[in-house]
UniProtKB/TrEMBL annotation:
Residue ranges annotated for the Metalloprotease TldD/E central domain, each copy included: 119-223
A biological process from GO: proteolysis
Protein name per UniProt: TldD/PmbA family protein
A molecular-function term among this protein's GO annotations: metallopeptidase activity
GO cellular component: cytosol
Domain Metalloprotease TldD/E N-terminal: 27-90
Pfam families: PmbA_TldD_1st, PmbA_TldD_2nd, PmbA_TldD_3rd
Listed InterPro entries: Metalloprtase-TldD/E_C, Metalloprtase-TldD/E_cen_dom, Metalloprtase-TldD/E_N, PmbA, TldD/PmbA_N, TldD/PmbA_sf
Domain Metalloprotease TldD/E C-terminal: 231-447
Family: Belongs to the peptidase U62 family.
Lineage, broadest ranks: Bacteria, Pseudomonadati, Pseudomonadota, Alphaproteobacteria, Sphingomonadales
């Protein structure tokens, strides 16, 4: 696979050709990846997959007109044809007053920091198979497990590089080790399924395969013989497996592109107090071995840690260059780029700070409620904030978990939910978006 330096060289070559063809300015992004995974089921090898791919995307500007194009053919002939075609496309594109590269004086020009994202050790297919077998063997040994959906161990290595015609060049490499197991308990109509999945840049940061399998098995058995919930308003607890989705909805609503299009429920509310004053949500692109750590954003700007929510208030829109120009606001380093189009907007490693009350204490305070461990479907209106999701989890009665429940819906409005949110103290930091158990009182539950 190519190195970050080779990827940057390819980007620079393509940009040089585009400028010769008549482009006023351009940027290019190269991505390359190689992955391998081994799946087993019921103790037997089920599948071995390996894939490799490289892609380069080019964006050119002629004044306020722009066009993007991508290819996986890195030959001289392909580069010549691609640059000629994309410049011709740009000549026919409509003018966009907000189009253009990021301001050159804001680019990240110094050496790019290493956030320890690449594990030099690469597993063999045999070691991946052994991890998958260890996971499934541990899970199937748990009493009550009746079948397996399979176990999978995988590894991938990827490279990304970005180069612009006005002075930026950067690239980095990252790796990912992943383990997952899916189990079945019960028979016939009573069957239940659950899983566990973990991924990390370094293998040493993952739990053992056996513990992954045991967790998947225990979750599956705990779901056996689910009951029904009554309909009505009640406290809802969001398990850490799903609580991060609420932050994900907030991040989507904080996108400057949504604000520019006036298509977010935070419009005219971005400066309001939306959360309890104790709530802090942080975005840290520089966390060592963080799932989404990055030294620069998708337009070559330096990244920096910032609070997304401080003292209960959002700290402002997340912006790329186009949104910043349209909203007349300073850039924030949140551009995200793929080979196939103009930059989008994304956060990096995000977490909500833990609260002071333990999960057990939180449950003990509830006379009748529900702990949600799984959400199904989309059910979120980004324009209004209306929220409705199918769910399953565990009934809370008299301060205790009394058994699994399924086939119910929880509903509310995200603005009301944010205002009522209480975090527990059980924060763990291994996902891209991390949150502790969250309690929201007064949500509408549609059950029986």
């Amino acid at each position: 696979m190519i190195t970050p330096e080779q990827a940057q060289e390819r980007c620079a070559e393509l940009i040089g050709l585009a400028v010769k063809k008549g482009a006023d300015s351009a940027d290019a992004v190269t991505s390359a990846s190689a992955s391998e995974s081994v799946s087993v089921r019921l103790g037997a090898l089920e599948d071995v997959e390996r894939s490799e791919g490289e892609e380069i995307g080019l964006r050119v500007f002629l004044g306020q007109r722009s066009a993007t194009i991508s290819t996986s053919d890195f030959s001289d002939e392909a580069f010549a044809e691609l640059t000629e075609r994309v410049v011709a496309m740009a000549r026919l594109a409509p003018e966009d007053p907000f189009a253009g590269l990021a301001p050159s004086d804001l680019l990240a020009r110094t050496g790019h920091a290493d956030y320890d994202l690449s594990d030099p050790a690469e597993p063999t297919p045999a070691s991946l198979r052994d991890r998958a077998l260890e996971m499934e063997d541990a899970a199937r040994a748990v009493e009550g497990v009746t079948n397996s959906g399979g176990a999978n161990a995988g590894f991938s290595r990827s490279v990304v590089a970005l180069v612009t015609s006005h002075g930026f060049s950067g690239g980095f490499e990252s790796t990912s080790h992943a383990l997952s197991a899916s189990l079945i308990a019960g028979e016939g109509d009573a069957m239940q399924r659950d899983y566990e999945y973990r991924a990390a840049h370094y293998l040493e940061d993952l739990p053992s395969p056996a513990s992954i399998g045991l967790t998947a098995a225990e979750r599956t058995i705990a779901r056996m013989n689910p009951g029904k919930l009554p309909s009505g308003a009640m406290p809802v607890l969001f398990d850490p497996r799903v609580s991060g989705t609420l932050i994900g909805h907030l991040i989507a609503a904080m996108s400057g592109m949504s604000a520019a299009r006036r298509s977010t429920f935070l419009l005219d509310r971005i400066d309001d107090t939306l959360f309890p004053a104790s709530i802090r949500i942080l975005d840290d692109p520089h966390r060592l071995r963080g799932p989404r750590s990055r030294p620069f954003d998708g337009e070559g700007l330096p990244t920096a840690a910032r609070a997304l929510v401080e003292a209960g208030k959002c700290t402002g829109w997340l912006l790329n260059s186009a949104a910043a120009r349209q909203l007349d606001l300073p850039l924030t380093g949140h551009a995200a780029r793929s080979g196939g189009g103009a930059p989008g907007i994304s956060a990096s490693n995000v977490h909500m700070e833990a609260g002071e009350i333990s999960r057990e204490e939180m449950i003990a305070e509830i006379s009748d409620g529900v702990l949600v461990t799984e959400l199904v479907g989309q059910g979120v209106n980004g324009l209004t904030g209306d929220y409705s999701r199918a769910a399953s989890g565990f009934r809370i009665r008299s301060g205790e978990l009394v058994g699994p429940v399924a086939d119910f819906t929880i509903a509310g409005n995200l603005l009301d939910m944010f205002a009522a949110l209480i975090p527990a103290s059980d924060l763990e930091m291994y996902r891209a978006i991390n949150a502790p158990t969250l309690r929201i009182d007064g949500m509408t539950v549609a059950g029986e």
